[in-house]
């Protein structure tokens, strides 16, 4: 790529600002998050050499987060990196993380901005120690007018209120995928110059697909409509769907969604009797909503199986939801099975 044709993240965001699609504060916020992701990418890349593998906690005592999950060292380290990068405020009024019980307002010694940042600092934690792609997911909301010290309830805004969303995937290459509501674009980290370079403008998800992603080991715990939907996928061209489907499951949402943004497919983490009491497995505010915004901006669809994801009214910071997202026609097909079932 000749230098003149190279579009860095900074240049891309400046062009978006000049076009009036983003303001300086939001642009700065995204740049700060991207910089933090570069540091996380370096830590992840070191692996065992950096002493970042394995569980957090000391003396055999696991460190358990609000989700009731044992934290990995990289969960804690990534969270610290994002907290430190954003601590000086300027563009932010507060932030919330998968790894913290409650949201945190920016200390009032710093100027506070107008935005709220939510993040899953390290997504795909079960893959950290086995060197499979992991990532960071983030969502940006406006701080409600007149609120100077935001609390948890101020984050409970539907996904349609997101100003920006993105993820960074730490795999063979480090990539940042971003939307500010004008398409979904991918940037690859050029390790030589240390900056994200635009490598795919306007990602588009094909409407139709022959690829599905779900943790099949949960099949016996699924609801009847999900059993029927996947049963028909597996029946292939001899079955009612009339075509064969292939399956993929990385067990890192960032990696599974990146594949779908790149070549189509459907990702689902449905309700099952194991997680029903919690409302699902994946979290609405910093997993489902940002991914749904990115997918919709790339021409795909996202649903709980029964409702457009971005219209879900949040009730809790760590609320969980069933997730279906990806190729539009396939998500509609999955939703159809639930609707027919619910209609008896
Ligand atoms: O272990 P399972 O049931 O396959 O679930 C995998 C899912 O859980 C997650 O790892 C949950 O995210 P965290 O790793 O951030 O907790 C998703 O990335 C992934 O899609
Ligand atoms: Mg996650
Ligand atoms: Mg996580």
Automatic annotation (TrEMBL):
Enzyme kind, highest EC tier: hydrolase
Binding-site residues, substrate: 123-126, 215, 281
Cellular compartments per GO CC: cytosol
Gene3D superfamilies, alphabetized: 3.40.190.80, Fructose-1,6-Bisphosphatase, subunit A, domain 1
Cofactors required: Mg(2+)
Domain Fructose-1-6-bisphosphatase class 1 C-terminal: 205-335
Catalytic activity as recorded in UniProt: beta-D-fructose 1,6-bisphosphate + H2O = beta-D-fructose 6-phosphate + phosphate
EC identifiers of the protein: 3.1.3.11
Residues reported to bind Mg(2+) 2: 120, 123, 287
Residues the record lists as binding Mg(2+) 1: 98, 120, 122
Signal sequence annotation: none
Keywords from the named record: Carbohydrate metabolism, Cytoplasm, Hydrolase, Magnesium, Metal-binding
GO biological process: fructose 1,6-bisphosphate metabolic process; fructose 6-phosphate metabolic process; fructose metabolic process; gluconeogenesis; sucrose biosynthetic process
Start and end residues of each Fructose-1-6-bisphosphatase class I N-terminal domain: 8-200
Pathway: Carbohydrate biosynthesis
Subunit note: Homotetramer.
Protein name per the record: Fructose-1,6-bisphosphatase class 1
Gene: fbp
């Amino acid at each position: 790529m000749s230098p003149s044709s190279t579009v860095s993240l900074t240049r891309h965001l400046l062009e978006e600002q000049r076009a009036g699609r983003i303001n300086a504060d939001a642009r700065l916020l995204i740049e700060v998050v991207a910089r933090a992701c570069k540091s996380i990418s370096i830590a992840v890349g070191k692996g065992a050499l950096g002493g970042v593998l394995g569980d957090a906690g000391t003396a055999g005592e696991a460190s358990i987060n609000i989700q009731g999950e044992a934290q990995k060292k990289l969960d804690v380290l990534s969270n610290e990196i994002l907290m430190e990068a954003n601590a000086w405020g300027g563009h932010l009024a507060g932030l919330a993380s998968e790894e913290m019980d409650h949201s945190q307002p920016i200390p009032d010694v710093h100027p506070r901005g107008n935005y709220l940042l939510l993040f899953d600092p390290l997504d795909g934690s079960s893959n950290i120690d086995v060197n499979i792609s992991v990532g960071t997911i983030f969502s940006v909301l406006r701080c409600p007018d007149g609120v100077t010290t935001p609390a948890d309830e101020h984050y409970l805004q539907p996904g349609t209120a997101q100003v920006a969303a993105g993820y960074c995937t730490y795999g063979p290459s480090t990539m940042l995928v971003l939307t500010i509501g004008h398409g979904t674009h991918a940037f690859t980290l050029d390790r030589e110059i240390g900056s994200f370079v635009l490598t795919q403008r306007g990602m588009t998800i094909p409407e139709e697909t022959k690829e599905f992603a779900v943790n099949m080991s949960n099949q016996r715990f699924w609801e009847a409509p999900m059993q029927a939907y996947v049963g028909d996928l597996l029946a292939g061209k001899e079955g009612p769907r009339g075509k064969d489907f292939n399956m993929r499951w990385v067990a890192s949402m960032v990696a599974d969604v990146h594949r779908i943004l790149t070549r189509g497919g459907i990702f689902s983490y449905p309700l099952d009797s194991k997680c029903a009491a919690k409302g699902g497995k994946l979290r609405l505010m910093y997993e489902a909503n940002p991914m749904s915004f990115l997918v919709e901006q790339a021409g795909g669809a996202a649903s709980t199986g029964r409702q457009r994801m971005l219209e879900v009214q949040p009730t809790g910071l760590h609320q969980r939801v069933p997730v279906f997202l990806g190729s539009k026609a396939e998500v509609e097909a999955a939703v159809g099975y639930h609707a027919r079932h619910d209609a008896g």
